[in-house]
Amino acid sequence: MEKEKLSAEIRRLAKDRKALILAHNYQPPEIQDIADLVGDSLELSLKAAQTEAEVIVFCGVLFMAETAHIVSPEKIVLFPAPQACCAMASMITPEDVRALREAHPGAPVVTYVNSYAEVKAESDICCTSANVVRVIATLPEKEIICLPDMNLAQYAQRFFPDKKIIYFEGFCPFHHLLTPEEVKRAKEAHPEALFIAHPECRPEVIDLADHVASTSGMLKFCRESEHREFIIGTEVGLLYPLRKQNPDKKFYPASENMVCEAMKLTTLELVYQALEKMEPRVEVPEDIRKRALRAVKRMLEIPRG
Ligand code: 13P
Ligand code: SF4
């Protein structure tokens, strides 16, 4: 089926099934175009928790679909690309979390949503790249464990000189790949451009940034900025909504190599088939879901900044 026809069929089926299509900002353009909401991890989790739809179709990676089921267990969560797994989420196990707790008794565990349900189940509270600072600010303890992303944890540390943020050595391979040399070269090539970085980038890259934000935070910043040119330090998928929302501005990737393959596995055909067959589904086992829910809910209850 050609693209336009398939997109129209998906929208028709979604209506029939009372389904809500959620897509992350890194998803392929044609997937973003058929979604009801395109957003960052926080926006998508909030929408999954609040929607009255009976079915959620999650176009993203597995931890995001799991989070949708954790907050909305009464809904069917369809996950069209079941092989789409976040490389960072796979770096940490529940045993790693328990070992860190044992090594740092009394320190609360703040877990980045880019983690699997069984890791969230071992945690006190979750965070995303959009709210990590607000989440840590709610914790009175001086020692905090923040996992699995060492770059996000070190970014958060900058805001809390009186706290010690203990981190696990996980990372996003695509953000961690970006070097300060590449950023400097991009700045030389585009001297008028601002450099915007995702907090998953390494500290030496964050040092060079004019602004640091989640993917939706980047979209907001670029929409509202008077500047005309931006170097984007995140996965290249974000260039599509940036250019769509700002046709008069220029966006350059900090590196062409920042491509998360897992985020590109969703296709229109797979979304169509998922809605037609009502599978594959994501369901988190109830005992893990209940424990993970405490940490996710505690995060969602923090007012948005
Ligand atoms: P955001 O929550 O900023 O969209 O980030 C998700 C992600 O996977 C970044 O690599
Ligand atoms: Fe995971 Fe990195 Fe892909 Fe985000 S970009 S989903 S952190 S592997």
UniProtKB/TrEMBL annotation:
[4Fe-4S] cluster binds at residues 86, 172, 260. The keyword Phosphoprotein does not apply. It is found in: Cytoplasm. Its cofactor is [4Fe-4S] cluster. It holds the Pfam family NadA. Its EC number is 2.5.1.72. The keyword Iron-sulfur applies. GO terms for cellular component: cytosol. One of its GO terms (biological process) is 'de novo' NAD+ biosynthetic process from L-aspartate. Binds 1 [4Fe-4S] cluster per subunit. Its main location: cytoplasm. InterPro entries: NadA, NadA_sf, Quinolinate_synth_type2. Catalyzes the condensation of iminoaspartate with dihydroxyacetone phosphate to form quinolinate. This is Quinolinate synthase. It comes from Thermosulfurimonas marina. The lineage of its organism: Bacteria, Pseudomonadati, Thermodesulfobacteriota, Thermodesulfobacteria, Thermodesulfobacteriales.
